[in-house]
């Protein structure tokens, strides 16, 4: 299977900076940040499932517009998966008729453009040959990461998270792990801010990766635009043995 990175930046401001979203094959999205806006209408209409890690704007910004754009081009609802806490935040604060129409009732409650589907950490959802499972994350709002398994290989995306001892036992049980996409939002000079906002900086990430017991490719995501070179330089110093890759828009990861 192929995971195409539509966006992986911790912000905007440059020609190629898009916020978090990953397109798996052609019909599954992991998060719906600003990178989704680069897809054509035909590509948007082919997406059947969106799995959300959490509800911060950089991870959901394109979702309301996407549904509005292609809802009437589809013959079935777009399924939005998330924990019950995540879905409740969407209902209360986004699809609430004040910020955006409630597309779970449009055009009718019986045949809506959008359907919310709750999931639990550890629950496995089978979509053809792809299995998706939520994994633990630790952030300032309810959050998860995702384990994507094709059978032949696995990709794990941490989502936004900080130090999290619940995460690593799950990852270490994945025998076919190929890719680990892990966040590092801040440089070491911003460690205090990283801890307050429940993100990572290089020194924190180095300590976390000592808990990894699997060989896999490490991909760094969610870098803040103004600190990319500084943060990647610090990562080269403290986790260079892991040969980390800076994730970039339009990279395709096979698993």
TrEMBL record:
Biological process annotations from GO: cAMP catabolic process; negative regulation of glucose mediated signaling pathway
A GO MF label: 3',5'-cyclic-AMP phosphodiesterase activity
A Pfam cross-reference name: Lactamase_B_2
Residue span(s) of domain Metallo-beta-lactamase: 18-222
SUPFAM superfamilies, sorted: Metallo-hydrolase/oxidoreductase
InterPro entries attached to this UniProt entry: Metallo-B-lactamas, Pdiesterase2, RibonucZ/Hydroxyglut_hydro
Protein name: 3',5'-cyclic-nucleotide phosphodiesterase
Organism from which the protein derives: Azospira restricta
